[in-house]
Amino acid sequence: xxxxxxxxxxxxxxxxxxxxxxxxxxxxxxxxxxxxxxxxxxxxxxxxxxxxxxxxxxxxxxxxxxxxxxxxxxxxxxxxxxxxxxxxxxxxxxxxxxxxxxxxxxxxxxxxxxx
Length: 115
Description:
- The chain has 115 residues and is mostly helical.
- The chain folds into 2 domains: 2-42, no CATH class; 48-112, Orthogonal Bundle (Multidrug-efflux Transporter Regulator, Chain: A, Domain 2).
- It is built from 6 helices and 3 strands; from the N terminus they run H-H-E-H-H-E-E-H-H.
- A hairpin with a 7-residue loop joins strand 2 and strand 3.
């Protein structure tokens, strides 16, 4: 931002014009808000995802994700107590593996970045 401030000051035709500092202040405020939003989103990354969440993140159907689990392409943990056969939860590292394999190009970085 210092370089921007120097550039704005050097190109200003009127030395009493306060537009440059106002722009720099506005940019600083925007960056602060962006950092707050990123911090909030990063804190929401999960250690495990449901089949439906994985399917939404990678843009595939839940059926496809279950087929990957059955074929051993994706590891999941079955948690008893929800539904007749339990609920499948997929560890975060498995989501990272999907991204590495090129199957999750549309996944937001917040969902896959390390905490």
